[in-house]
Amino acid sequence: MLIKNIDLVPIDGKNEVIKNTNIYIKDNIITHIGEIREDIQVERVIDGKNKIAMPGLINAHTHIGMSLLRNFADDLPLHDWLTKKIWPTEANLRGEDVYWGSLLSMVEMIQGGTTAFCDMYFFMDEVGKGLEESGMRGVLTRGLIEDNDAKAKLKETKELFNNWNSKANGRIKVMVAPHAPYTCSPDFLIESFNLAKELNTGIHIHLSETKKEIEDSFKLYGKSPIKHVYDLGILDLHTIAAHCVHVDDEDIEIIKEKNVFPVNNPGSNFKLASGFAPVAQMLNKGVSVALGTDGSSSNNNLNMFEEINLAAIINKAVNLNAISVPAISALEMATVNGAKALGWNEEIGSIEVGKKADIVLIDIDKPHLYPHHNIISSLAYSVQASDVDTVLVDGKIIMEKREVKTLDVEKIKFMAEKHAKDLITR
Ligand SMILES: [Zn+2]
After folding, report:
1. Domain with CATH 3.20.20.140 in the chain
2. Which of 32, 114, 293, 377 sits in a 20 to 30 Å window from 228, CA-based?
3. Which segments of the chain belong to CATH 2.30.40.10?
4. CA of 169 relative to ligand 1 center, distance in Å
5. Cβ atoms of 294 and 271 closer than 8 Å
6. Max intra-chain CA distance, the chain
């Protein structure tokens, strides 16, 4: 395949736009970027006129089945939102609900330029099925909240790993997901860690999301949640740490020392009034902060361009510093840093020869994107999810001219609505 005459934002460590170039793809690999090569046979040509190519966006923390609870419980603090509305409803969830809710989210993500995600939820086999069908790339993690069924949930995680890890041409990975230190005892955190170690995989956990969580942790353990899991040894494995909102200097030192991957979820953190993660401080220390949407019932969408915009502008306001988290840094959070968090940085996260072709084409022939002064600024500050035109994952076109090729969008909308209505009246 050849993507011809396109302006490319490779996100390869340089703050650059390569004008009017050509991208060759063979099978799922980017084989050449640059001048037209007459010696390469091409079966398919995509015209890049008035388009920008960029790496597919990576949503590094989400709960995609929660789309069924979008706009169902809002304007509540995290604790009440979870304990009074979300958890009681989720207790009635069935596998089929999660299947249709996840597909709804995948359509939304594809249409918004997201090519890979890290999901934490239940009925993860259903998410695996949807992931395989959609053509997307993803990390599946079964959320582990410690209760009487805790042992069974660990067993389920192991089965999930055996069923899905490395499947779909390597597009699927499985990690272990103890939900948070406030829903898992130290013993259970260690059991989860041991399972991840046995499976030779990583951990996906929520850390230091709210002030209440920090206060409770100090009351219970005399230390911050991050220090707590550090002392338990949990951070010795590859760790994706959602939120890291309320972190102090010692916490940031730990994150740096253990090469933890914090995931900033600005939309969710603001909406639940959780606070501001010190993203600029962490980036300045060399920490790879990734970006996520969290679930679409706390956001209330899976629009990564919105998160890029929020990450870039809010840090400026909070730090009273207009150069804090510049456009390129916010784009890196949503691409290369996300790839590192998901343990896929050798394969995806930037557009370079040898990497897998997870590529998004943005239509810049839109009034709100003219004039074309600075494409990188445009991507962080002006582009909307609806400007995504074409999406490739693993060298395959999964959306073209905004038409999703892999999924039946009308059927998914219908079935998601049906299951959502049924769920809340069950
Ligand atoms: Zn979350």
Report:
1. 57-342
2. 293
3. 2-55+355-404
4. 27
5. no
6. 69
CA 22 to ligand 1 centroid distance, Å? 39
Residue 43 assigned ligand-binding role: no
Radius of gyration of the chain (CA): 21
Its pTM stands at 0.97
Own/partner pairs for 368-375, CB < 8 Å, 24+ apart?
Answer: 375/7, 375/9, 375/17, 375/52
Q: How many C-beta atoms lie closer than 10 Å to residue 33's C-beta? A: 19
CA distance 213 to 295: 19
Q: Is 206 annotated as a binding residue?
A: yes
pLDDT of amino acid 339: 98
CATH number of the structural domain 57-342: 3.20.20.140
61 annotated as ligand-binding: yes
381-412 residue pLDDT tens = 999 999 999 999 999 999 999 999 999 999 99
CATH superfamily of 2-55+355-404: Urease, subunit C, domain 1 (2.30.40.10)
SS3 392: strand
Separation of alpha carbons 41 and 133, rounded Å: 29
38 is in an annotated binding site: no
